[in-house]
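Meet today's protein:

…
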Amino acid sequence: MKFSVIEARAKRSQFDELAGDCYRDNSSQIIKDLNRQNKKSYFGIQNSKGMYTVIGEKSVYFSVEPGLESEILNSELLRVFQRNAMQVGKGGEFEFVNIAENESVWVLNGKVMCAMWNILMLLCEANGGESIAR
């Protein structure tokens, strides 16, 4: 899938606007570093403490503690988003989404999480799997 299609989905979802100062694109250092490691990364969020969540072609790369980097498949994170949204509801707090007993992905807030969700659905469909969150 062409990057321009993915970028258009991100713009329609207002990912950059919702993420504000935390938004990172392919000109940012974190994206460049991940791409140098052969992790095809597009854009994401990062705070001043170094915590980040970056959407890639097949995985989301994240770190909530300095020096501790993790990765989750896009399709798996979609399932986690869906499960958490159903449990917590629309009014829930979504700064962090638990993906395992002692592991969380930073999403900044519910609106940014929804924008990520939309982008991940597109990427999952493009990679041959139907997104589970329709």
The first strand starts at residue 23 and ends at 24.
